[in-house]
Amino acid sequence: MGYETASKTDAESAIPGELGGMWFLKGELSTDELGLTVLELDPGAEGKEHDHGKDGQEEVYFVAEGVVEFDVGDDTVSVGEDEALRVDATTTRHVRNPGDERAKLVIAGAPL
Question: Which fold, 34-104?
Answer without folding.
Answer: Jelly Rolls (2.60.120)
